[in-house]
Amino acid sequence: MSKIRTVAQALELIKDNMIIMVGGFLSVGAPLALIDAIAEKGVKNITLICNDTGFPDSGVGKWVVNKQVKKIYTSHIGTNPQTGIQLNSGETTVILTPQGTLAEQVRAGGAGLGGFLTPTGIGTVVEEDKQKLTINGIEYLLELPLRADLALVKAAKADKAGNLVYRKAARNFNPLMATAAEIVMAEVSEIVEVGEIDPDQVATPGILVDYLVREEQ
Predict the structure, then answer these.
(1) DSSP string, 28-62
(2) Which residues contact 81 (CB under 8 A, 6 or more apart)?
(3) pLDDT, tens digit, for every residue of 12-50?
(4) What is the pTM of this model?
(5) pLDDT tens-digit profile of 98-113?
(6) In what order do the strands lie in the sheet with 138-143?
């Protein structure tokens, strides 16, 4: 069965209360068409896992402004003042995490690991309510893996089997998140026939990708 869907068809799969991972870095390499469609649909009570909360008028920042998100795992909120306002008011739960730790939590989720040890955050608010272990005299935090119901990623090109090629900075959180969700939906700029992509260019194999949505021009 074909993996290709229109934006409207893809929206049928996106429901309230989902845990959603979204690739990108300050909206660069982010699946903006799908993000905008979810904002317009008004999907509610999203648990969001992302590098940052974008801008008020771009990327997942639109979800925050619309108050569609109930909990966020992220490393940076400074470009979207509304996130800070909702955090301080208690309206939205925001789990601020060092960027490398967040990336490794997603990687651990995709690899089926139970967690990992890191010294990052020791002696700061990051260590609050987390288990600490001392190994060879060095103190570490036990960080737990992250997985999602749905990962939305952005790729430059895909073949019809779902093999993905990313362009430049889009190889940020996208490849990691494509491993760590029950459903992976890729927004792509171009879809070609199987065999037209050099295997050496494939960063995410098609076996991980459930749906392809061509970026609307």
Answers:
(1) BT--HHHHHHHHHHT--SEEEEESB--BTTBTTHH
(2) 56
(3) 999 999 999 999 999 999 999 999 999 999 999 999 999
(4) 0.94
(5) 999 999 999 999 999 9
(6) 116-118, 138-143, 132-135
